[in-house]
Amino acid sequence: MALIGAGADLPGMLDAIVRMVEAEDPTILCSILLLDETGRRIAPGAAPSLPDSYNNAIYGIEIGPDVGCCGTAMFTGQRVVVEDIATDPLWAAFKTLAQGAGLASCWSEPIRVADGAVVGSFAIYHRTCTAPTEEDIAFIEAAAELTSLAIERDRDRARARQATEREVEAARDLTTFFEISADLLCITDFQSQFVRVNDAWTRVLGWSRAELEGQSYLDFMHPDDREATLAEAQIFQHGHEILAFRNRYRTVTGEYRVLEWQARQSNGLVYAAARDVTAQVEVAREMEAAREAAELANQAKSDFLANMSHEIRTPLNGVIGVIDALARTELSGAQREMVDLIRESGVNLAALVSDILDLSRIEAGGLELEEAVFDLGEALGGALAMARLNATAKGLNFRSYMSPAAQGRFRGDGLRLRQVLGNLLSNAVKFTETGTIAVELDCAVTPEGGEALSCSVSDTGVGFDPTQADQLFQRFNQIDATMTRRFGGSGLGLAICRSLVERMGGEISAESRPGEGSVFRFTVPLRREAVGGEAPHATAEPAVAPGARPLHVLLAEDNLANQKVVELLLSPFDIVLETVENGAQALEALRRDAFDLVLMDLQMPVMDGLTATRSIRHWEAERSARRTPIVVLSANAMAHHCAEALAAGADLHVAKPLTGAALLAGIEQALDHRGAA
């Protein structure tokens, strides 16, 4: 027991136990056998009195139900007593070995540890055949328990050594990680002093560990960051962790680096890790500056396009408006041909301006899609009818088919669908000299359970190389430069089509072969409107009806040419037109007289159209006066211009250049809106 308590090694303790038991009875021989690491074979323990030849012969033997006394006891977990080795079947394989060692009988007790597992056996041998007494049984049990205690104590010491070794190794690993970490690691106290820092502080800031440890970290911090850091430390002391907190630390050269911190407290100390994020902060700052510059550039681009739109549309309004009025007069054949030529050129130029504006709004994300109920046949019917007329005029065949599934009312942007189909049809007619233009429209159920409109436009025109299909949908692009000279066009139509289709959640593609025509297809998801849902807006009855009371209309317009255009366009109708040159005069005119409608330009001297519209609405509200419809006529035709006009109180925005049909439609819609209100 003294050896066990003193912490002797296991072989020494086992040897001492065997010798102690043998000393109690000089006629016996003892052995302690153990199980090896597999738990299946006999391993040496202690047997100082047995011959080495015997011991060496049994080491490594696999235990089993008939492997002598010790092998059987370890296998079964039960005491095994053999009074006559020479005749007992358990010793049949080892009888000669036992006789050579002078062994006649054997009693073996399994050794169990605290968890009940058998780890070995304690055996007592006699040189004569002997049966154990009760005292002998108690003696061998006590010897096995003592051996078990020695084994447990040895295991405890081994576990303790391993735990200590692991702790030492872990501490060594932590120290290694602490020293080699690229992050700035430190331990501080709650008095803001560095207790320990790693070498990363020297690498990043240049300060040595001796210069930092024992010093207040506030002394190395940017003065502007100290207050925020102390406030964070106060929160931290109440048990919160620090995550992603940033401040600046001074380098040995006087510069500052931005550090991002994570920290946790334990046992009255703060364990913190900081990462140098100066480069990331600088990159973020540069990206923010680049984003702001891009936004400014985009705004400048939008402003430029808006101004150019206004400057182009203003004179174009005079051309198209006057030509539209002139076309309604008596003309000779030659004169009408010239008027038609001028009108066609003006319309083409207006379409080009609109395309540029549409593309600009799409790229800037300023084009908003409408969500309204529309009849698909009615929405696309105008584009189909126009294409049929143009195809017939060129001597082309025109076929269109709309499946029953594509008929009915849907919710979406019917105007943009018509724009896409119109562009595709216009291209088909333009690039086809002989043959046929064909259109097919269908609706099918999508895998998600919705519906999608599918449309194909085919022609027998010039075609193109299929490898260049994607190039067609790029801006200002036609596959062959000779196409532009031969057929004209800006190369914007298909780029707009693709942008609109994709904005609506669809896809567009093209197939072709040179000289064999082309097929353009697009699909767009639509929601079918249930029967009895919101009805499409009906077209108002013409407000300018023969025999009705003359309409009293006020025009606010500073441009003399545009004044004349409106006058010419409205002269055939029963309209009394009064013209003023700015918004202030318009407000004054409304104060002294009643008007059925106001036509308001936006860009005017003294008082612009938006200010005048707001002033009129304010004046009406103060006096609870009748609301006079206001239609804005402006060359500012971008989306935000329309929104600003409506927000100011206008009823409608009609973009210049004006035609008689567009102007009258706007007047009718505004008057109809007043009647509905």
UniProtKB/TrEMBL annotation:
Q: Name one Pfam family in it.
A: Response_reg
Domain Histidine kinase: start-end pairs: 307-528
Mind listing the UniProt keywords for this protein, alphabetically?
Answer: ATP-binding, Kinase, Nucleotide-binding, Phosphoprotein, Transferase
The answer to whether UniProt assigns keyword Nucleotide-binding to this entry is: yes
What SMART domains does this protein map onto?
Answer: GAF, HATPase_c, HisKA, PAS, REC
* Any GO MF annotation of the entry: ATP binding
InterPro entries from the xrefs?
Answer: CheY-like_superfamily, GAF, GAF-like_dom_sf, HATPase_C_sf, HATPase_dom, His_kinase_dom, HisK_dim/P_dom, HisK_dim/P_sf
Record field: catalytic activity:
ATP + protein L-histidine = ADP + protein N-phospho-L-histidine
How would you classify this enzyme at the top EC level? transferase
E.C. number? 2.7.13.3
**Domain Response regulatory, chain residue ranges per copy:** 552-671
Leader sequence residues: none
Q: Does the keyword field hold Transferase?
A: yes
* All residue ranges annotated as the PAS domain in the record: 170-227
Please list the residues that carry the modification 4-aspartylphosphate: D601
- Put simply, this protein is called histidine kinase
Please give the organism: Phenylobacterium conjunctum
